[in-house]
Write a structure and sequence with these properties.
The chain is of the alpha/beta class. 52% of the residues lie in helices and 12% in strands. The protein is built from ten helices and seven strands. It has a seven-stranded mixed β-sheet, sandwiched between helices. Helix 5 runs parallel beside helix 8 and helix 7 (175-186) packs parallel to helix 8. The N and C termini lie close together (6 Å). 38% of the residues are buried.
Length: 313
Amino acid sequence: MRPPEIAVLVPCLDEAATVGQVVDDFRKYIPQARIVVADNGSTDETNKIAKSHGAQVICETRPGKGHAVCRMFADVEADFYVLVDGDGTYDASAAPEMLQLAIRQSMDMVNGKRVTEGDSTGGEYRSGHRFGNETLTNAFRKLFSLDITDALTGYRVMSKRFIKSFPGRSTGFEIETDLNVHAALTGANYCEVPTKYISRPSSSPSKLNTYKDGWRISMRLFKLFRDFKPESAFWMFAIPWFAFAAIATIPIFIEYLETGLVPRFPTLIMAAAAFIIGINLVAAGWVISRIAQVRTEELRLSYLATPAYSAEP
């Protein structure tokens, strides 16, 4: 029987206060794993501390968590990948259970659903982050029919076929958004496991800006919706134009029935133009939806091209 090759991927930016403990914790619970830290341009001792604790360090100079994660996806070979932030907020003891689900039930993505101890508004999970996560999670559920409750968790176990078919276009914190959409488009198997979420130490401030990064993630979600569900997206764009055309035309039509005259030609011309714009948007959505279907099929074929893990040698 061939044991699975496991890699723990840890993207880091100035996490000297926590990265050593993260490496030690995951080595304790997954002793057979290869631990890789992606140093994303740290100005502290992150690189040195990670190496001193036995981790392999990859330096990614392009700023942004997405760049660091995609670099590790490209460079590291394994059967299963554990992706975890280097801030020490995720519970390493949950990793064996998540891996077992991935291995025994052929799951391509197992998400660590964050659960705080005690009061649900605990300080370890800021209210702004919680609200943004819930909002975006609901959007994922509606737009891509994803049955998940924590869309932006940074703690995941993923299969090789899932990782190696991932396009890797993310640059920042929207990496989690892209991973979720990739699961939806490829038809990958996924599930969630509750995991304890731990407070960051005061010496390790969060790099996530609630409003700036929340806006970037929202825009990324919108662009993915536009690109991969264009028929629905372009109908949304067209509805305001159709509504304007209807609102402008109805009074003119009623006046024509009553008097036989059309005195407001400029308004009628504007309404006709709005209707034509709406029709063009709908037609564009139909055309682009075919292109999107081809792209989705290519993603699925890329996903299937990588064999699933088998314990047989």
